[in-house]
Structure prediction request, 126 residues.
Amino acid sequence: MTEPTTRQTNPKRTLVDVNASGGALVLISASKFAKYVEIQECPPEDSVTYAPQGLIITLPDDGYVYEYPLLPGQIWSGGDDTYRAKLGFAIPAMTDPANNTIAATPYMKVISATGTATQVMVTEWS
Prediction:
């Protein structure tokens, strides 16, 4: 059996609403087993005129303490985008055989960089 060398062609895409800068941070977590993920601000589906807001993200690596800017058009990515036989980057929420809940892998917490709410597209590849 040969090892695949490219990502799957049909990743899972999820739209997530993001609060304005005065609101609460929104947690974005894995929704499937993923080897690679991209998160980017995107226009609403019904938008005629779209003004990107930019994002402020916090990461679980530092306990969500430090804020990092994600400018309009920038993509945050994690995992291995070559689809080599490596461990997965993220797991979805699940229940183990002993009926214990296992939380999904958190990617980040996010909020709009301005007083205007926005949304992001989370794209996950297996």
